[in-house]
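# nightly structure sweep
# worker-07 picked up a monomer target from the shared queue
# config: single-sequence mode, recycle default, output format = structure tokens
# input follows
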Amino acid sequence: MHRAGSIKRRLLLTLVGLISLTWLTLFFLVHRDATHELEEIYDASLAQNARILFGLLQREISEGEVELIRHIELDNRLQHPYELHIAFWAGIGKIVIKSKDAPEFLTELPEGLSTYTIDNSQWRVFTLRDRENELLIHTAQKLQAREELVSYLIRDTLSVMLLILPLLALLLWWGVKRSLGPLRRLMDEAGSMTARTLHPFDISDAPDEILPLVSALNQLLGRLDRAMENERRFTADAAHELRTPLAGLKVQLQVALRAEQPAQKQKAMTMALEGIDRITHLVNQLLTLARADRENAASLDFQRVDLVRIAGEVISALGRSAEKRGIRLDLTRSGDNCQIPGDATMLQIALRNLLENAIRYTRSPGQAVIEIRSQGERVSVWVRDSGEGIPAEAVERMFQRFRRGEHQASSGSGLGLSIVRRIAEIHQAEVLVDASDPEGFAIGLNLPRQAADQPLPAPPTTR
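# output follows
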């Protein structure tokens, strides 16, 4: 598996690389523009010097002092070394005045700027000509001098850039490290958390770029903390619920071992078997609830299921139990299409729990009815009984886990309705309760005919 590597190192290398590329581009542009501007300046200087010299010599010619020009001698004692790269040449007829070491320029050079090669050296020459007075002026500069000056400028600029680059890289490293400080603190905070010390991250100094991530992590931590707290409560409640029937089972078995009368022993064994049945039922409910908490629509195999068929199977499975209690079971339906998308096993578990509750809390003789109604885009399944009903204020409490009804004869686990609610959430269904009839009670599921697109809710947080 390929690792992405350090964000800080990748960010630093990216920034340094981009800055270096930008500098190289600027260096190229500066080199081009500097060369062009220097050439313009030097060309203008050559033209200006030539015009000054041209004007002076024309004045001398007009004043008739041309012969005096013949005796002009240039003083070369204070010559600047750079003068070797510049030159002037002036001719009036056969009289020539030129700077030291100035080459012999061709008299046929065109007026204005031109490039002239002599003795393997290139010269930039500006020429002025007065044919009437036989006056010719050349001012020139070696192109080598220009190239050297441009090289000096570029070299100095590049040297400064190369010296600044390590310092800039260091500053970038410090800036990147400082900018990633909140991320490092989040990592340290996450590393210090344990299963018992989960808490939301502090988002007061979280950068905008990772704020959505931190907020999502906080929501995840909140759900995880609630889930773990639920698991701890569930474990404690389950241990408590199992401890009581196990203790009763142990007592009954001890009574059976000590009993001397067969009838007493038989009674103790019968009660022990009933205790085993209650423990088995509780364990099955616990396993069902654990599975329901773990599953969702994505992990289950949703198919088109017929609620009428499922209801008939549940009634057949619980028919003998209801008959022993003197409870009559019926099934009614309204509407043609009673098929919905869902998991048949989960829906059967939910309906079985509802019907078991109805049988358990219905007076004998009594009746429990499963009503299936198909209306528009929803299909509702109601389980109605002729029991005592419950107060309206107790409706929400009955969905709490390990919460049993007040009926003295009831021996449930207190998990059935919690399982029903979770299965309803998995199927994006509503749990409906009708406690308005004092002579009975009705509870049902309102299920969508089409699969919903919205995300499924998390497992319930109330134990």
